[in-house]
Amino acid sequence: MVDLTSAIHVQRFGGSGSSGGAAAHDGVMGTVLRRLAGFAELSAAEADRVRELAPARRRARAGAVLLAEGRAGRHFLLSGWACRQRVLRDGRRQIFDVIAPGEGFGWGEPADGYARQTVAALTPVECVDAAALIIGQGDAAPSGLARALRGMLLEQDARRLDHMIRLGRLTAVERVAHFVLEMQRRVGAVEARCFPLPLTQEAMADVLGLSVVHLNRVLRQLRDADLFELRRGTAAVLDPEALAAAAVLAPAAGRMQPAR
Amino acid sequence: MVDLTSAIHVQRFGGSGSSGGAAAHDGVMGTVLRRLAGFAELSAAEADRVRELAPARRRARAGAVLLAEGRAGRHFLLSGWACRQRVLRDGRRQIFDVIAPGEGFGWGEPADGYARQTVAALTPVECVDAAALIIGQGDAAPSGLARALRGMLLEQDARRLDHMIRLGRLTAVERVAHFVLEMQRRVGAVEARCFPLPLTQEAMADVLGLSVVHLNRVLRQLRDADLFELRRGTAAVLDPEALAAAAVLAPAAGRMQPAR
DNA sequence: CGGGGGTTTGACGAACGTCAATCGGGGTGG
DNA sequence: CCACCCCGATTGACGTTCGTCAAACCCCCG
Q1: Terminus of chain A with fewer CB atoms < 10 Å: N or C?
Q2: Scanning every residue of chain B, which has its alpha carbon at the shortest distance from the alpha carbon of A115?
Q3: Which has more confidence, A258 or A41?
């Protein structure tokens, strides 16, 4: 499926404008285009419209707020990782959802003061405001772009349900195992043993509703059992079957199923 | 606001067809109409279209599956309480969301195999399939009905975020307090001391990600402290301020905010 | 060669789950 | 009308999981 192993390391601007191969041609928007294509085929014109967003991209450092609480508005994450979160007055933080490179944010978030969530960068990121992007919505045949974006939102919803189960009904080990498998699938590395997962243990703990210390112990436990390893931002699934067994629950599908 | 104290006890069919007062005129659809009106004003024609659904209503007993996993399709809950849930192979259950009388279900659920959730009745219920209801979507000015339904979905989304915080970052006492306040607001009984909450402790435990035993202890603790009481399906908020303090987090707004 | 943030570990305690038994109330059938 | 019964609520005892505090440790960068 989609290979993002390298995409996350793309941090250079300029160059790679119109050299040759498809990936090179896609330039910095490659991550986004490949991910969208995972949901629905885009027409050449649509892909071009997406590519044209590239000059508007901006960088942000880890920890930066990409979208303040209550704000919305179509963005894409070109590289790096972000999250949707909320911080309580006493400092406790819950991360609702991790945003992987190539994914969008701000599309689903209701702007009318309803959902109090903030989008924040977990690593250094590049992102673009896609407010200007023409989608081609409504009426008879939704465009490929519209279908892809819809698919992205649906998958996000599905993942949130999984996440609620994780938080409410899975043990710490199960939560970690399930989260790792979700990320593996999500990053398109189902066959690969290793994939990038540059999240702080603190961030991961705030995703999974655990303390950093306890998460660390669970990670060591999985490492000692040769199931899974996380070192320097790279995840390694050493024993997929055993890890899946530990996860109890199969992660949400990464692709749209045919309507019934 | 909306008073559902009696609505939940409406179990009789027939009668109350066109006697007099507004509530009586709304008949069995009154709960739904009042709730929709809480989000956006409906035109007389729209209200009539909703009322016309009444004959199609059906009953189900507690525990019945109202919408199987993966299915969707516009429904309203006329009376009784239901929930969206998922049950793991080993029997663990997580309830994603409680559905109060008058609320809709199946509107947001994606039908294409994405979200694996089941809608199940928590008490005896009456509900209708509203697939035939003409909404008046799209284009320039969305109808009152469309806006009301959209508001319902937005509120549901907002509540899910709160729910994720509850599960991931609040203690048992905080979870219960927050849940109770959310329900109070949701049922339109913010001023009232008492309101109907006919959930089994087992159901509430599965909402809050707790064991029944521990939930029971928390409830006793709140009762001993004269903060909150739950007896025979009726909730009594004895000390609103203290309960709100115990909840840490203010529950999601019950009404649509003006767009910014 | 120092910071400094992230990771790792130990010791301890609090929060929560499990097992098991009892209680209570309302619904049902005689 | 009453006895029975069953499901849900309640309680005690105990064990486990997980959080907190505190102290190293490690690695990356400057």
Answers
A1: C
A2: B158
A3: A41
